[in-house]
Amino acid sequence: MADNRRAIVLLSGGLDSTTTFAIAKQQGFLVYALSFDYGQRHATEIEAARRVAAKLGAAEHRVLTLDDAVFSGSALTDHVDVPKLRSDKEIAAGIPVTYVPARNTIFLAHALAWAEALAITDIFIGVNALDYSGYPDCRPEFISAFENMANLGTKAGVEGGRFTIHTPLISLSKAEIIRRAYDLGVDLSLTHSCYDPLPDGRACGQCDACQLRKKGFREAGLTDPLDYVK
Ligand code: ZN
Fold first, then answer.
1. Which residue did the predictor score with more confidence, 38 or 131?
2. I want to staple 209 with a disulfide (CB 3.0 to 4.6 A). Which of 47, 124, 184, 193 is the partner?
3. Is the pLDDT of residue 133 over 70?
């Protein structure tokens, strides 16, 4: 792998995006990390993103503030209760209220603009189509459509550049992602997954994200370093 290849990595500070960052690094990319403050309740995730970017050695880390007015109505940004203690079956069925309208489209659009400005053609996103919460913008069809759009809608794309949206986790289970992170030596105590953390930052242990994470650690046979509310 050539040195000095550069990539944008979308970094939420969660388990998946942190592992994606480590994979991009392992593939030889110098990482430009991009995070968003979009009025999410779990603002502690931005702190997690900062910790991860510093620890994993981002060449640069930007945190963009988006106007949260556009996302109103989602449980992650609005005053709607985050669902708790749902069964695996319930989590797998339908699109939950924690869906944020067009979030990955908006995130990837910002990543694309920054990539084109920096003459970077590789963008990594930690979407996952297996152990996910039913979000349509985590599916491979969506990613492939976005990639086509990126190559049609940019000067770099039209002039022969080729944007690639990398999704190294797309077909992995949560347990496989966690094992991958351990193999890469990622300190998962830096990460944050909970949709509804306590004011002190501790994870609730009951929302879909906490449950998927805990199940992943169980299946991987590893111990989650996070401190959950008992
Ligand atoms: Zn939680």
1. 38
2. 193
3. no
- Is residue 158 within 8 Å of 207, Cβ to Cβ? no
In a 3-state reduction of DSSP, which class is residue 79? coil
Give the distance (Å) from ligand 1 centre to CA of residue 104: 21
Q: Radius of gyration over alpha carbons of the chain, in Å?
A: 17
**Nearest Cα to 229, choosing from 200, 192, 204?**
204
Q: What is the pLDDT of residues 136-149, one digit of tens each?
A: 888 999 999 999 99
CA of 15 to the centre of ligand 1 (A): 13
Q: How far is the CA of 196 from the centre of ligand 1 (A)?
A: 5
Is-contact 52 191, C-beta < 8 A?
yes
- Could you tell me whether strands 122-124 and 29-37 are parallel, antiparallel, or unpaired per DSSP bridges? unpaired
pLDDT given at position 169: 96
| Ligand 1 center to 203 CA (angstroms) | 5
Residue-wise DSSP of 15-52: HHHHHHHHHHHHTTEEEEEEEEES--S-THHHHHHHHH
CATH number of 6-220: 3.40.50.620
Ligand 1 centroid to residue 76 C-alpha, Å: 11
Please tell me whether the overall predicted TM-score, pTM, comes out greater than 0.85 for this model: yes
- Reported as a single tens digit per residue, the pLDDT across 45-97 is 899 999 999 999 999 999 999 987 777 666 666 566 777 888 887 777 777 66
The tokens describing 207, both together, are: 């929302």
Distance 136 CA to ligand 1 centre (A): 21
* Residue 205 Cα to ligand 1 middle (Å): 5
